[in-house]
Amino acid sequence: MAKFVFKLKNILEIKQKLENQAKIAYGEANAKLRQEEQILQSLLMQRTMYEKRAVDLVNGSISIRDIRENKQAIDIMKSRIRTQMMAVRAAENQVEAARLKLKEVMIERKTFDKLREHAFEDFKQEVAYEENQAVNELVSYTYHDREE
After folding, report:
1. What is the reported pLDDT for 63?
2. What is the full DSSP assignment across 20-52?
């Protein structure tokens, strides 16, 4: 019996490996985004704590030095939050780029899968045709043997 051999098998395997690599890159980009978002949440919580402390300092005994230090800490936190928001946006852009790359690679792999499926269907039709030819030859040979 004939064996099906897909001529573009090597390319299909490469496309599958590229897809796996793109999936890994997408997962890593997502993990980086989650990490950056966690850092941002932590900074926001710290800023809230400093703002709460500022209210406590104003309501309690007034110490100019403590109030200035707290205001400085709040300003630093605002700066760090802005920087972290930019890092989160950069991570979001990386996730989007990885998603687009994954989508592109998946389309390429699916194209080669379809080509393989079509080639296999053609192969099955060829095998069926050859089997029909063999059966027809047997039947005609048997029929001619009987007539003689």
Report:
1. 80
2. HHHHHHHHHHHHHHHHHHHHHHHHHHHHHHHHH
Tokens of 123: 């192969």
Q: DSSP letters of 56-94?
A: HHHHSS--HHHHHHHHHHHHHHHHHHHHHHHHHHHHHHH
**In contact, 113 and 12? CB cutoff 8 Å:** yes
pTM: 0.71
Residue 141: exposure state from Cβ atoms within 10 A (0-12, 13-18, ≥19)? exposed
Read off the tokens for 52.
């709460």
How would residue 59 be classed by pLDDT, with cut points 50, 70 and 90?
A: confident
Closest CA to 36 of 82, 78, 99, 91: 91
pLDDT in tens, 85-102: 999 999 999 999 999 999
